[in-house]
Amino acid sequence: MDFSPVFTYPDGVDEELLANTILRLKRPKGPVDMVLDTDTFNEIDDQYAIAYMAASQDRLRVRGIFAAPFANHHAATTREGMERSYQEILHVLSLIGREDLAGLAFRGAPEFLPDEKTPVDSPAARELVRLAMEHSSETPLYVACIAAPTNVASAILLEPEIVNRIVVVWSGGVGLGWPDCQCFNGGQSVAASRVLLESGVPLVLAPGRAVSDRLLVTGPELEHWLRGRNRFCDYIVDRTIREAEQCFGEQIWSRPLTDVVPVSWIVGGDFLLDRFAFRPTIEYDRYYSFDPRRPMMRYVYYVKRDQLIADLFEKLSRL
Fold this sequence. Notes:
By secondary structure, this protein is of the alpha/beta class. Helices cover about 35% and strands about 20% of the residues. The strands form three sheets. An eight-stranded mixed β-sheet has the order 3-2-1-4-5-6-12-9, with helices on both faces. A two-stranded antiparallel sheet has the order 7-8. The chain has a two-stranded antiparallel sheet with strand order 10-11.
């Protein structure tokens, strides 16, 4: 008698789509084309992510850097948040001596998606569509989205074909064990998050809360490893300390470098653990809902904090 296990998919699952999605979510080997979608002025981790990306030229070919909208204590409106992010991208590129990448920076949407059917047109969304259409499912464009996915969702709505030509690595949502989705990137624009999650685009989810936010740095570490190394290092140490003081910093504090994790997934290295999972969606009450008929994703569930911080600091010190 044959006792080998038999696995059957739930009714309604497109098995061919599922298999193709899994194949396209292999970790990239060798240099790949990528773009970064970033709300850079939102906090301090995006600046680290830009510098880490630029310092990983052996693994990445940067094709675009897109400013995303946000609103918080650094920007009263989404339009102001996007514009301040755009200017901060240029500032960081200047600090790290990569003004050659400034021509790849584009302003994104000035506001969030009004609904799940209406894109917010912008230079960034149009450039993402253009770049994606130069790629294929065999050689995709990697999109590290470290913001509310307004620009990415808008590009998908403008040209749905790009879901077959890109892989999105998103710093959004929360750990799947958390009861709600009260996170910044996933919750600021629920409509955009739903477009991304339900589009079928190959997706790597590196959730912020309870996973990527474990990539913590402290003041003494920054002073020891980065202070005095170069202009960017001095700038980001000072910015990180100020942010800690503004955001509940006490005598002992740490700050998460959450948005470095999606870049790290594309860079490679033994810094992250992930697995396949059926992707959730985010409801308008900002809670997850689950359905095993949805496409699969790669889900980052653990960050090897010390190893990744060591790689990050070493690369930043050499800028």
